[in-house]
């Protein structure tokens, strides 16, 4: 009897960065993972839309600072299209005031450029699987920074809107939303709320539909806007 292959297609990744050395390093790093495939490299945000149409990536690694169109504008334009790929923003701490804009646009998360290679590979896999994420711990720290006191703190109108949306949730939905705002993974939420991981995933999907959001990062930001974490 002929066996049935259980192999799945590799995750298709596109790298967007104006530094050729960064692109080469990322391509080499990701190319070493059997389940990832770099399908395109782009040097500017202005080239992203055409490259996505040509290569159909599952995940785009997006730099912020580029000469013609920066990664923020490119992310906003890309996520506004039908069935866009996931976006992971590449950044450094000195650019963290821009990260919030990227996450609100629908980016699945971000990576620091000095993140260890194994963590970058893991983050790409998680985002490709729909696990837009607030971890590892450095991500939680940066999210707390950009949503904390100061010029990036939510205005009164945004806070009232966030509270209104969260008030429309059931008690259990609200508990899951708060856990997302604290940067919890599905497994951590399951343990904390005595639920199965599958049930947590179902609640996250329900939250995205009910709140009309793209991913769990945006749920977390809504919780931060409401001042609940």
UniProtKB/TrEMBL annotation:
GO biological process: phosphorelay signal transduction system; regulation of DNA-templated transcription
Xref: InterPro entries: CheY-like_superfamily (IPR011006), NreC/VraR/RcsB-like_REC (IPR058245), Sig_transdc_resp-reg_C-effctor (IPR016032), Sig_transdc_resp-reg_receiver (IPR001789), Tscrpt_reg_LuxR_C (IPR000792), WalR-like (IPR039420)
Modified residues (4-aspartylphosphate): 63
Nucleotidyltransferase keyword on record: no
Residue ranges of domain HTH luxR-type in the record: 162-227
PROSITE patterns, per database record: HTH_LUXR_1, HTH_LUXR_2, RESPONSE_REGULATORY
Pfam families xrefs: GerE, Response_reg
GO MF entry, a single one: DNA binding
Domain Response regulatory: 12-128
Segment forming the signal sequence: none
Top-level division of the source organism's lineage: Bacteria
Keywords attached to this entry: DNA-binding, Phosphoprotein, Transcription, Transcription regulation
SUPFAM superfamilies for this protein: C-terminal effector domain of the bipartite response regulators (SSF46894), CheY-like (SSF52172)
Designated name of the protein: Two component transcriptional regulator, LuxR family
Source organism of this protein record: Micromonospora pattaloongensis
């Amino acid at each position: 009897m002929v066996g049935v292959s259980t192999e799945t297609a590799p995750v298709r990744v596109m790298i967007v960065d104006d530094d050729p050395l960064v692109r080469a390093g990322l391509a080499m790093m990701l190319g070493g993972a059997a389940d990832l495939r770099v399908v395109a490299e782009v040097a500017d945000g202005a080239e992203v839309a055409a490259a996505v149409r040509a290569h159909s990536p599952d995940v785009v690694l997006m730099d912020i600072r580029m000469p013609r169109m920066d990664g923020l504008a490119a992310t906003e334009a890309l996520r506004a299209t039908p069935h866009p790929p996931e976006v992971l923003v590449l950044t450094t701490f000195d650019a963290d005031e821009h990260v919030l804009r990227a996450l609100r646009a629908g980016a699945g998360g971000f990576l620091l450029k000095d993140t260890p290679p194994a963590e970058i590979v893991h983050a790409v896999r998680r985002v490709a699987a729909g696990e837009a994420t607030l971890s590892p711990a450095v991500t939680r720290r940066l999210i707390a920074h950009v949503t904390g006191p100061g010029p990036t703190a939510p205005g009164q109108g945004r806070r009232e809107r966030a509270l209104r949306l969260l008030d429309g949730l059931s008690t259990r939905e609200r508990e899951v939303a708060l856990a997302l705002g604290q940067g919890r993974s599905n497994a951590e939420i399951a343990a904390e709320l005595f639920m199965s991981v599958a049930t947590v995933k179902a609640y996250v999907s329900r939250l995205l539909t009910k709140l009309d959001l793209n991913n769990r990062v945006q749920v977390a930001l809504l919780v931060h806007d409401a001042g609940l974490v």
